[in-house]
Amino acid sequence: MSERAFIETFLRANSDYVTQKYQEKQNVTVTSKDSPVNLLTEVDLTIQKRFIDATAEAWPHDLVVGEESGHDRYPADPNGRIWVIDPIDGTYNFVRGLNPSFAISIAFMQDGLVQAAGVSMPLAGYYFFAEAGGGSFCNGRRLSVSRVQHLESACVEVDFSSVKNRRTILRRGAKIIREAAQLRSHGSAVAAICQIATGDADAYVHPGLHPWDYAAAQLIAEEAGALATRLDGQPLRVFDKKKGVLVTNGALHEQLLASLTR
Q1: What is the mean pLDDT of residues 103-132?
Q2: CATH 3.30.540.10: does it fit domain 3-142?
Q3: Would you say domain 151-259 falls under CATH 3.40.190.80?
Q4: Quick one: pLDDT at residue 37?
Q5: pLDDT at 161
């Protein structure tokens, strides 16, 4: 089985479990990590463990990097075979949202680059898949970014997830906030970046993010024609230990880079 097929098999086998738990979320065990909005549920832990077990059976020598349970570490060899999983991206939405955006996100990396990726948005029934050089798809439909060319006409996803990030984006992204045609804040990086791929949004900006927050969605967006960089215009690499993510339809990229004051 190819890595791409492995990702799809896992997502399709586990999405119903996430949906069921969301429908019964009043009974789901929830704890907080480093802040009141950084939540952890039994669902996050279960999905990640299931994935680690499945990967160990299929590729016992591969490394899994994930958000939970001590797997949130950078690999000693970033060029090896590495799986990157966010079991629930948008856990706060899962716990406190009515019809929220959250997703299971899986990326496979080799030679330092994402080679295959998949994202499931269980409530919406959306499955996104991409392979390097092979395009990206949602429920079988090939994806393509929007053609919006001016900030004044753009829909921009801005993540206000934490107080620290909020202050940074209010300072550095003031021009974007003032001038964009529409602002959205889904509270899920994966859902937001996938909307760049579908053309439903034109740009996404975040002053932080961890590798599991964007690894899969980045490939999905780029294979649809998006451009992804750091906030200073440098290439976005999953394990470069830098901060800041800007993903756009390409046409808006230079305008947004210029708008992100230091």
Answers
A1: 97
A2: yes
A3: yes
A4: 66
A5: 74
- CA of 167: how far to CAs of 95, 186, 246, in Å? 24, 18, 17
The verdict on pTM exceeding 0.90 is: yes
In this predicted structure, the answer to whether residue 132 has a pLDDT above a threshold of 70 is yes
Residues with Cβ within 8 Å of residue 130, at least 6 apart in sequence? 116, 117, 118, 136, 137, 216, 219, 220, 222, 223, 224
CA dihedral 5, 10, 15, 21 (to 10 degrees): -170
The residue to which tokens 């089985």 are assigned = 1
